[in-house]
Amino acid sequence: MTIETKELVISEELRKKVDMICKFACVKYELVNGSIINIKNTNIAYVKPHILKINNNNYLLFDECDEIFINGYQKKIKFKDLEEYLKSSLL
Prior knowledge:
Elements: E1 3-7, H1 12-25, E2 30-32, E3 35-39, E4 45-48, E5 50-54, E6 57-61, E7 67-70, E8 75-78, H2 82-90
Antiparallel strand pairs: 1-3, 2-5, 3-4, 5-6, 6-7, 7-8
Helix pairs in contact: 1-2
């Protein structure tokens, strides 16, 4: 069994949106590229999302997706509500 990993590059548009939102929310952040993990000779693949790290929280981002997952896939918010969420979580 051979596992193949390919790094996904964050689109410039998504990077700019995240940067602008984090500046308006006055938070420091780290943005980590996602990846695609394939098991060769099968049809099994896993897409690891981009990860936005802020204050010990991981926000999972996918390109061209309107939702952000918070610390896993259980809780999600709309991308447009991220700034307000970050500001309220800092209080």
